[in-house]
Amino acid sequence: MADAPPDLDTQEGLRDAVAKLDPDFQGLLERKGVPARTQGVLSNLGVPSISKFAALAEAASDVRAFAVDHCQLVRGRDVVSIASLVDSWQACTTRMQVRHKAEAEATVAALPAPVNKVEAQDLKVRFEQMYYKMEDKVAPATATLEHVFDQVEAGEWKNMALVQFLSKDDADAEPLAAVIDRSGNVRVKKGHGETKPPKTPEELRQRLKLVGHTYVMTQLKFPNRAVLRGLDPNIFMKLADYLLGEHVHGLSAKDEKGEVISRPSFELVLSYEYQIRKFATKAMNEGTPMITALEEGMKDTTTKERYFLTPTSMGGASAVREYRLKSRSPRRGDSPEKGRDSWENRSKGKGKKGKGKGKKGGGKSFHSRTPDGRDICFAWNNKDQRCRYNCGRAHCEALRSFTLKVLYLFAGAERKTSVVSYLKSMAAKKGWAVDALEVDLKRGDHFDLTQVRQYARTSNFEDQGTDAYPPKLDEAIAAAIMAEFSGPSTSGSVGGGGCPEVKGQSSGVVPFEPGRRNQRSSGTDPDENGVDKKRKLGESPLDKSSDVRSREDSSGEAESVPVESPARAGHGVPIRCWYKGKERSIHDGGGLCSPGRWPVKQRRQLSSESALGLASCCKGEFLKWVLSICNKKGDAVKEVFWSLAGGKGLKSPFSEVIQEARESLDRKLELLGKSPRRRSGDRCSEVNFRRLAAALEVVEDEDFEWLEAAASSGVRLGVDQTMPRVPAVFEEKVKWNLDFTDEEFRDTLACNYRSAEENAEDIERQVMEEVEAGSIIAMRTEEAEEKYKGRLAVAALGAVPKELGSSVVRIVHDGSYSVDINHRIKVRDRMRFPMVDDAGGVLLQVEKEVEEAQGAMRCPILYDISRAHKLLPVDEQDWGLQGFRLPAGKQEGTVFLHTRGTFGVASAAYHWQRLAACLVRLVHRLGGFDLGLLHLLFADDGWLTALGPYFWRRMLFWLFCLELFEVPIAWKKVRGGLVVHWIGYQIDVQKFTKGISEKNVKWIVEWLERHRASGGVTGRDLKSALGRFSFVAGALQHVRPFLGPIFAWAAVLSPGTFAKFPEAVAVLLDFIQGEVVKEAMTRPRRLESRPVEKFRVDAKAEADLIVIGGWEIPASGRTEDARWFSIVLNRRNAPWAYLKGEPFRNIASLELVAVLTAIMLFGKGWECDMSRTVMSLSASTDNLGNTYVLNHFMSCKYPLSIVVMELAVQLKRLGLEMDLKWIPRDQNSEADSLTNSEFMGFDSSKRIIVQFEDLKFEVMDKLMAKAADLDDEIKLAKSSKEAKGDRPTESMHKRKRGQTRWEDPW
């Protein structure tokens, strides 16, 4: 009995029916606009291919009749659908006429039937929908598909050599051949070309990947062939792993010393690979599935012994013999045979016979001394003599230098050191010469590939081995060029560039990295789970999305190592921002794989039918709500939005329809085979975790499985357990603020803090409300001790006022000091919250989209998630770890246990952030293009921004989706407007600026005036205020340098000490106040183009002589056309440079003074439109430390801190932003010459003659002397503390914190 056709009234049935159509036919119907249901009807009617549909009718009228009679279409209603069907039939008829003719000609000529480009492209699209995006270098050429398809149709499989598998890159031009047909006419036919055999392991892996893609596309073309069933690309990757593993290519023979004396040749590996596929081909012709046949081929001992082991052993024996003949002894060259390294062979000149003159050894040049002056032993170097090792000379090679040729390419992070300069310095010590070309592919003005290729060929680079040319070089160049358009690549090359396999595996030069020990390894960098952190061999640097791979250490945050997301959530470059002098992608609160990190138009959209259906369901329910309120009043939706933006939304605007919408969503998810409804045994929570997990699974999210466990039993706190690791969403955390303990856990009952005792009534009220809500349970102390024996931690409570003068307090659960819970929780994922820098990146994106749309409407809106940390239920096993007692003896003998996440426990924030990231990614994917927006989520504070004539619908849809999954929103806190206050910062989307509000400015002014009037400040109050000043500096970068000396002074003040402001600190605070009052809002730093290098500088300090010099880089790049300066500093015009004794001790400050002088002398001539943005420029110096100073834009050291302040003021005044780059000293020779009074190559008429004392500094003259006094005071205080032993200890972490936050709120 035949199977019943799929039910077209269900999504699954319709999908199954359409899937039965041939790919080329289904693609044709799709392009012609034939509805999916009509496609399903054709499938059920048994019309799966172009040929059958073309043969169905003889005229268009017959097709129209067929559409009405059999395809369930109505003439008057479905006119367009019928026309699409007729259009498809005409296209099929035309194709089949051409195809029949081509097949007939091919049959007559005994050639494979041609595969049209449309069909090949359809198969490629089908493949990419099922697996992953296929690059042209591993996509089979049409000619290759034709030959494999011909084998299927002929019913006989033939083994093809690897050179016969052509990729699209290999077959850019199709090979043509001339043949004589049976009638005697000469005809031109398409031939079958061949490519080069693989020469490296990487090329072999890539070629096998191409072979796998070929057969998988064949399986898609012939889905009913039993031999191809179950085939996927991984089977050939398994073959590659086997061939390149330790049992084949990695096999080696070692001598008694453990040295490798023999390895199988790569040609032998290729031969063995061919025999494996030949074995599989024979089995396939006997009916064995390809997967089974390949696995049996790899396991077949006869094949391996005959074609690999035996040839390897025979080659190994000769290799051992050669190895022994070449082995070195105290007497060189005892062997009767001359090895290739013997002196005779080395003495030959050009050609085989050589042209050396004179006696033996003629034509060779020898060293007589080592670089350190020792005599070289010539007896040891002479095969006819023997040295007894008592001559006292050096036993090393005497042969004179040779030329080391190096091609060094990189395309990743900018090199901090020159590999070529280090090579030359090292080679000079050995008497070698270095001929090197160093190419920065990413930052070059252009990509002159001709120069690179020509150099590689003329230098006779090896074309075999790990560093093969040209495949590796081509891949590095491709990655470099793509990095220009797709953001920075984190793939490693020699030095961190674009060629992933070279780093750590290079048989050539290993680059020098300052501060790190050079290592030569096998290329693996396993993490604690044994997984290689580096990119696997064979993966392209363009396959995966990543952020800048660097250790970024932000204040108060743990250090982490960014890792790559497994799939890009968008196309092209993500939204970028500047953070501490570095460019990076924004963090939006949705994790590394969040679509929100890309502009709306560049985000990857849902592709599967189930995901699209889910998004359509959510949008449909939202549309129902829109229509329901629009029926009452036309502009009702806008009124709802503006009511929320005005802060008048006291309750959800979706309350009347949300329950029905949730029910509709559940039904949709159930149709898709999911279980979205709550279950009887589930833990109580506001959020419907099962509905959320089901929706995330449908949209193929990276992190949804954990939600099922959260729904049924809750999350674990992670005390003395391994916390989860989600590399697709979070970066790896590698540094923690708290120290961890390995001591045995002991039950603890801590006493509450005084603040809790003083607010016992309000604390009891809040706790009772939580008990009633079920988030806290009460239990007798004896019962708790028995039930949670060995895992009971009753922490101390503290209390702080929520608002100034309010009796309502915020309860603080101390999981760090009263109990050591947090010292046992090791969160392994780093939480990345968006900051003001990310807000700046979003503002730039909004401005760009507004310009493109010529003034698009926009209005942001803010929202807040209620009780965010308490939304996650905690596993009952860990309730005992979240215990506390009421203060003031209330309900004595009772212990209260939190059953939800608790603020004060280290993992609570992590669990909430993981949940929030899931929500952010889901809503972005459900919104798609039409309802997409920009969004940032910091903890539980969200910022939504949308553009366009219906921007409010996008933001209302976001809030509607949160309601669908029962996320509690604090509606009374929802508000919006062109100017909003988010996480303490003021954001203006009309002027595209960020900064601090008038309220914040007023606080700073009042704080300064109050403490000026009192004559000083306590250490506690100063430290509290500095936190707020640092917050201000986050938005106003030019203020940041002025905080350095204040931090240094605050560090030596005891918390309770009242101190008068030093003169320098008073001046700094006055300047900060003036800048904040004058300009509280600034525009974010633009990322339009790479900064242009404007000048190079240097400084010289020898004895009492100080000289600074620099030259402006003209358009021609020639020093003759450049403006330049060379200025002498002395004790009269720069006394601060001599305060440490000899001026070279202040060389970093002097180098930065040179930069400052160049800005002041050259900057006036640079064009800058201040109404739009600032100008970005780049400068170069050979002082590496100063690049870090300017990246952080702050220093606490004198006098460097004062120079940084002056530089900040001058840059702000000129409207400039600068990136200071480090270059090696040998590349900065022109500026170095200026400091040595060597002016050759410079035009004297272009010299800017100025005295240092004539430069008009804004703050440096005023502050230098006062800052020197402050520096002396700080040093004295430090030395006094050291003498008294009053050093900070671990116990000081328990000090009383400043009360500014609660007594004087921001």
Automatic annotation (TrEMBL):
Residues 348-362 have a biased composition (Basic residues). The keyword Coiled coil applies. Residues 319-367, 489-569, 1277-1306 are annotated as: Disordered. InterPro entries: Hepadnavirus_pol/RT (IPR052055). Residues 746-773 form a coiled coil. Keywords: Coiled coil. Residues 321-347, 537-554, 1277-1292 have a biased composition (Basic and acidic residues). This is Uncharacterized protein.
